[in-house]
What does this fold into?
Amino acid sequence: MDKSPLLGSCDPATSASVSASASEEEISPLPPSFPNSSPNIVSTPSLRGLKNTSRYGNGSSTYRHVFGKSGTKAESYFNLDPKITTMDSSLLTANNDFFALPYAGGGGQVYVNKLSKTGKTEAARPLLNTNHTKSVCSLQFNTFDSHMLATGSDDCTVKIFTLNEEGGDVTVGENTLSGHRNSVREVLWHPLTGGILASR
It folds into this structure.
């Protein structure tokens, strides 16, 4: 039986033959700081040296010194009183012309206003009369018609409204979709095809 000596053999002749047969790529000698190290021992980098990266919070970040600036009251919307207790989806919906959100109070009141009207909300601003008997849980503007708004409510119905240029309702409950057994938690218009609405 051929009993070949191992790499760690103390036989000088065997060690020399093994070293000669190994290629330079297979041998990674330790640094000179280890005087008694053998050239046949392969070294690996320490994990401690790898920790000095941004993954561990010690490295530099491209966004380290980026700061935001708060908008002024003239550029903001304030004095609003949204109803957020029943919201499971986005708090509000908006497009290039309007923004809308469920409003505090009884029934399914919805506040709609033009996107360009920033600043303090008018106290006497009329709310959209949705004719929902319970709170509105979700709402979204049509992808292809900025004046068409869909709302889903706790009363298990979906309603679709057409708005005028000021955000007021033209036809109350133009379409009422029923069939849900539970609250309508989300309404979504199809992003690529007009006239298709999904609800759940």
Summary: Residues 11-43 form one domain. The mean pLDDT is 74. The first strand starts at residue 77 and ends at 78. The two ends are 76 Å apart (CA to CA).
